[in-house]
Specification:
Blueprint: E1 11-14, E2 17-20, H1 24-49, H2 54-76, H3 80-85, E3 87-91, H4 99-109, H5 115-123, H6 131-136, E4 138-142
Antiparallel strand pairs: 1-2, 3-4
Helix pairs in contact: 1-2, 2-4
């Protein structure tokens, strides 16, 4: 079930404790949800306003995604898609939300056109941190309120 995290999921040291990592499925669902919430409406509206300038429409939609990710994640570590998937972004050193500068760096590096940071997360077998997370000093974890306990 979406947002449900098993007890045997990998964990990582964050701040002074160990926390469960977000699942790959949760991360994908969160990104797709955020994409549908923001980029598709921007693309449709701007497609009518600027019908002959597809490049500008795509650029504005992508920049909108950076602003959306930054403003949503800076304060509480989540976007609407991440809340739906019950995952969040935290600082590795403290476990606190990333703050504006870290969220901006992460959002800018995680642009859909910037595939490399996301791909690196697939090959980081221990913590699944992409290049964008490493630069920003963040990690994506399961929302502790969503963990199934015994």
């Amino acid at each position: 079930m979406l947002g449900r995290h098993r007890k045997d999921v990998r964990t990582a040291e964050v701040g002074d404790g160990e926390v469960p990592l977000a699942t790959l499925g949760g991360r994908i669902v969160a990104r797709l949800a955020d994409f549908l919430i923001l980029v598709v409406p921007i693309y449709v509206v701007l497609g009518f306003v600027l019908p002959d300038d597809t490049g500008t429409v795509i650029l504005i939609a992508l920049l909108g995604m950076v602003v959306y990710d930054t403003l949503s994640a800076a304060r509480n570590g989540t976007t609407p898609g991440k809340r739906m998937a019950r995952i969040k972004i935290v600082r590795v050193d403290t476990g606190a939300p990333p703050g504006f500068l870290r969220a901006f760096a992460r959002g800018l590096l995680a642009l859909p056109l910037s595939v490399m940071p996301a791909l690196t997360a697939l090959f980081d077998e221990r913590t699944h941190r992409g290049g964008h997370d490493r630069v920003a000093g963040t990690i994506v974890i399961a929302d502790l309120g969503a963990i199934i306990g015994e």
